[in-house]
Design a protein that fits this description.
The chain is of the alpha/beta class. Helix content is 37%, strand content 10%. It is built from 8 helices and 5 strands. It has a 5-stranded parallel beta sheet with strand order 3-2-1-4-5, sandwiched between helices. Helix 1 crosses helix 7 and helix 7 crosses helix 8.
Amino acid sequence: MPIGTPAHRHPRRAIVIASGGLDSTVLAYWLAARGAELTLLSFDYGQRHRVELEYAADIARLLNCPHETVELAMLGRLLVGSALTDTDVSVPDGHYTDESMRATVVPNRNAIMLDIAVAVAIVSKADVVAFGAHAGDHAIYPDCRTEFVERFTRSVRTANEGLLVDDFEILAPFLTQSKTDIVRIGAALEVPFERTWSCYRGEAAHCGTCGTCTERKEAFQQSGITDPTNYRSV
């Protein structure tokens, strides 16, 4: 097991919330390496970087597992005020600050996705719903914190008593890992990083300047691993 890899039991069947990004892709490979049967579940919630969904589908093909996209595009029209869903809000450039990261918050996004993933898990009798929240998300995103995962899990078990498999859990194994740690884990698992998408601008190539591109570049630099990403601006 690579240094820095979180310890965990080996799930049997996992529903993975897959954005097509670096974190969720490493998570999918991490679960596959543990022998889990995967279903990748993506969401079209009206995000301007909808191109990420094509990358999620590509990863599913590489892992030879099912991929489903849930159509929630109307949310983009309702959840205004976020740079991810509202074209009147600019995507912030450079290193994230509390204020610039707040511009990328989509209210209740993870809870919405997780609720749907749990329903899919019940139908498919999966023992895990997994998502790729990491330590760098904690400051601004309340639904990427340990407290959220613990309380959401209790809520899910209450709401679905008798429906979930006995050892069901919401799994976020990277909650204490940095983006740099995730790159290192992914490299050890031979994740095809060039086939993942991070940029919130969602253009033909990664812009290289937005907060997510900046974070991605620094994770590769700090890990000492070659970054294969095609950036429009270096």
